[in-house]
User: What shape does this take?
Amino acid sequence: MLTGHRPVVRRRTRRSRAARIAIPIAIPVALGLTLGVVIAVSAHQGSTDVNQSAFGLRHPSPSASASTSATATASASASPTASTGAAVPPANTFANGPVATQKLGDVATAPVSGAAGAAPINLNQTAAEAANSMNCTIQVPANPLTAQGLETPWQLGDGCSMANAGTEGAFVEATILAPNGQLSVYNPLVITAGTTPAAAPAPATVPAGSVVEISVGFNGTNLALTGAGANEGNCVDALGQSLIGQVSTCNSVNFFNTANADIARGTLTVPAAGTSLDGQQCETTRDFALVDQDPSDNVVTQYLINASGQTEQASPANVAADGNADTLLTNGSDDALLSEFVDPSNGCTPFTAPDPTYPKADAPSQVLNELAARVDQKAPIAVIPVNDEMVLVNGNFSIAKTNVYRSLVDQPLLAAGTNATQVAADFCQNMVNIAPARDQLDATRNANFTSPVPATGDNLNTFLGNRLSMSFTNLNCQLYGLTNPVNVTVNGNDVAIAVTYNTAQQTAKIPAAATMAPNPTRNVPTGRQGHRQNPSGM
Assistant: This one.
């Protein structure tokens, strides 16, 4: 996940909190302008400062960066295990099953972490406790799928504040499908509980008979939905009580069922992916060249925040009225990485729709990206793997929770009895065999494009390489006889300044002990209090 998008190194240890306080990010915005914003978060109890910086929200901890550099350098220079230099056929992608036709998952009422230990989420935190846990709640307004509901701010609570958006910020994004097949996007506002909007939300338009989907992204560890609107909106944030982490949605399965039917009968048209400047098909969110340790997470939504901690939508009018007085808040997102960085760097055009709440007249969204990926992505197709930390249950692989998450983004479900370890190993094999070659092919162009998270890489090329290296480690791909294909060189600030790739093909091997159990307990290296979300920031 990435970009003003999503931050790259999402997994951080407690000792790295001071180092990650400021996260630089740069993101292109409306009218050909580039708005540079930096979210700086002060952890001092009783005060929170929001300072200008760039477009991202997180950066790798010193320990994560150092580990990445040392490990990647050693492994990339070595010959990969089981590699002969010859082409290796793609492994099973487990992307051929049916999609969900009815809601899967739940709204947790006594939420627990998916990490080992399944720690209960404290729903009565102080601000200091929230800053430490990076767990938050968000209150869903009544009737969230209506125009009035979309215009009603969601409230970030449980001690959390949008002034600390780099580690506590939540972002909401709605995609609206009208009966005639027309799509539009609207970003409902998130405010800190107890505050009021800096500006009234823009009017929302929901034509009669429309289907609305809401995607929620988060920059912290676990976000729990609260309020009657969570049930009224057909929302999901968990399997039982086990939270999906940063991701929750409302009315997703209904939306995608309708959209897919409209596509089949020609009412809804999804544009072709197009051809990149490298001669290959433009990337999608289901391309192994783009995915990371937690694919298809988070949103493209942006907000503005003033010095008093009040938020407002980042509409063209608000951006123009505020000038440089306010700070741009963004969600570390794979979707924004694609639409705001990878696509423009390589001559591609994202799938967008009219949006009155985005700095540009037309906006991408997580839903639009998933529709495009479903229609356009050629095999091998990358979908959410069981070793994505957001789908763990008590630290273990879970077919059921993986299917809940897949249902939220219209991805094929895993069959009951699927060997989860094989799913994990095959995802790793495809990632290490496909991503390095594409990143290397696009390296020159990407090296001349701004970095989504300058604290991770000094340009888009080094950022993508460092992100891939981190994903290899965080997915535990080494457990399957694979070696990290990226050699990352970092400077004294642990920022990647050069990357090289070993493109030799590798074949994953299942450890003997793991073949006996489809859902083995993972030996997951702990990061941010056991939560190892993408350290790259996206």
